[in-house]
Amino acid sequence: MSYKSFKIARILIAAFIAMTVSIAVSTNNAYLAVSAVLIGMIVMFLVKKNVKAVLVDEMVKNIAGKSALMAYSITVPVLALLSLIFMFSNLGNEGSYFYNLGIIFSYIALFNMAVYSFAYYYYRKKYGSDEE
Amino acid sequence: MLITIIEKNMAQMKNNIKVLRAEKGITQEELADKVNVTRQTIIAIEKNKYIPSLELAYKISLFFNKKIEEIFKYS
């Protein structure tokens, strides 16, 4: 499959998922939405497997890496700051909605940091260490 | 800071892939296929917006049958 055909197939799969999910939402059918997304993912995987053209190369990976680092650098401080604001502004009201939201945000920020640390440690081990 | 240093280095890195490609009469897409990258990567390298890895630089130099320093110039 050529890159042009892949692009067309990608648009068709996205349209199929969007249409089916919107039908599922309007008919209040969760199973239809989940199955549409799953079918879309499987078809996308099969289509990607049959593409002859190069889809990911070193520049794409480079850009993805920089984007991921930027997303992480923005997301974690924003979530941490929001969690602090939500929690400290509701100190006398611990069970409130915003207090709980603050706790959830802080856990998401911590989870992000843990994943980043794990990935950083893994790639540092993979690509080099202090040992000569 | 690091990004600024890399971007400054990018400005100092030049290449003559466009000329070599024209001499050989091949398109960006054909070169991209030969060295296993996307056409966008070849465009970025030709415009000196992206510095290729050593592996890709070798692949390009092997394709044109030239030394790396004959294609990529650092000034």
Can you walk through the features of this model?
The complex is a heterodimer of chains A (about 130) and B (about 80). In chain A, helix 1 packs antiparallel against helix 2. Chain A is about 80% helix and about 0% strand. The N and C termini of chain A lie far apart (about 45 Å). Chain A has four helices and no strands. Chain A is mostly helical and about 130 residues long. Chain B is mainly α and about 80 residues long. Chain B has a single domain, classed as lambda repressor-like DNA-binding domains (434 Repressor (Amino-terminal Domain)). Helices cover about 65% and strands about 10% of the residues of chain B. Chain B contains six helices and two strands; from the N terminus they run H-E-H-H-H-H-H-E. Chain B has helices spanning about 1-10, 15-25, 30-35, 40-45, 55-65, 70; strands at about 15, 70-75. Chain B has a two-stranded antiparallel ribbon with strand order 1-2. In chain B, helix 3 packs across helix 4. Chain B is globular and about 30 Å long. Chain B starts with a helix and ends with a strand. At the A-B interface, helix 3 of A face helix 4 of B.
What's the SSE blueprint?
The complex is a heterodimer of chains A (132) and B (75).
Chain A: H1 3-26, H2 30-49, H3 58-88, H4 97-127
Helix pairs in contact in A: 1-2, 3-4
Chain B: H1 2-12, E1 13-15, H2 17-24, H3 28-34, H4 39-46, H5 54-64, H6 68-71, E2 72-74
Antiparallel strand pairs in B: 1-2
Helix pairs in contact in B: 3-4
Features:
heterodimer; A: 132 residues; mainly alpha; 80% helix; 0% strand; flat; B: 75 residues; 434 Repressor (Amino-terminal Domain); two-stranded antiparallel sheet; 2 strands; 65% helix; globular
